[in-house]
Amino acid sequence: MNKIIQQFAQFKQKYGKAGLALYFGFSALSFGSSYYMVKQNKEQITYYLNKIGLHNEKMLNSSDILIAYLAHKTTIPLRLGATAALTPFVRKLII
Asked: Measuring CA to CA, how many Å separate 84 from each of 12, 14, 77?
């Protein structure tokens, strides 16, 4: 875990606010699109939640956000890769 923290610190030092803004932008886009996809496929998700016994009336609204959050978390490698690849280009555009 220390290696990841060190790499993050090096990344932040090298690219500064541009890198952080790009990463958080990707994160917002990822979570927003995950939530949209969950809302669009509500019937299918409800079917699978019923099938495994996790769906009830209390979870009706909170399950959308939870499922979207879990889907968002699975995209961490994509977000990190995209951020690492695009940050130098974006930083050159800004500076």
From this structure: 11, 11, 11
